[in-house]
């Protein structure tokens, strides 16, 4: 089978899998936390029920709002779907014309970041504007860390194509436990927690407007608009957890296309993402949201780790 057809099949499988997996991941995270805290919880399928309910409702938009309130949620959803297409989640066979390059991935993520911020601003509320301002401040600190941390991982591979980075780590397992890799993965994990509005940067379960980041921007959204915003955010979290899992444990990913290999890749990435979701949920129980003025310090620390990883990679080489 030629490379183009193989990449299309793998990309289609990744999109379908993660559209199903993302709400399940959120339900699992919430259920694990509820169980540990001694609550019954709503069950792991509750996010699916919420999405189905929201999709059946027409959105109510503020008077005077622009087209951005309608286009923003769709833009976030599309950018998250593109992440699922481009990232090496089930397989590492890239599109010939659209490589899974580091700079392409970060640019696609930035589309969703800006779209979400504009949605918060377009509602015209004080909380929406405040949330968008904080969101863009965090994004300005996160994007350089994402670039540097993955760049540090790309030096052994000799390319910034993420699928080639994963293949290199699969063929040379000693790279995974190197100090450079550990520093870069820690920095990348902190940046992903900030990018997806998780603790300790933001508390996704809060209802106190003054402490909200992500939730403040979605206060004015309802119906289908809110469904696209929620699913888009869940997809981004699931895709980025899948990327981290493949960088840490690359075994099971498809490098040569076959039906059996594709099945193994689907099962493997699903297990990896759900296990990381459980670990994330358990870890968040022991974390508290840091004060807003301490967020830049935390993100500056992650940037320093990424910078050290890049420096050390050249020294080791």
UniProtKB/TrEMBL annotation:
A UniProt-annotated Pfam family: NADHdh
Molecular-function GO terms, alphabetical: lyase activity
Membrane topology annotation: Multi-pass membrane protein
Localization terms from the record: Membrane
GO cellular component, one term: plasma membrane
Keywords of the record: Lyase, Membrane, Transmembrane, Transmembrane helix
Entry-linked InterPro entries: ComplexI_Subunit1 (IPR052561), NADH_UbQ_OxRdtase_su1/FPO (IPR001694)
Residues spanning the membrane: 6-29, 67-90, 102-124, 136-155, 175-194, 234-253, 259-286, 298-316
PANTHER family in UniProt: FORMATE HYDROGENLYASE SUBUNIT 4, FORMATE HYDROGENLYASE SUBUNIT 4-RELATED
Protein name per its UniProtKB record: Formate hydrogenlyase
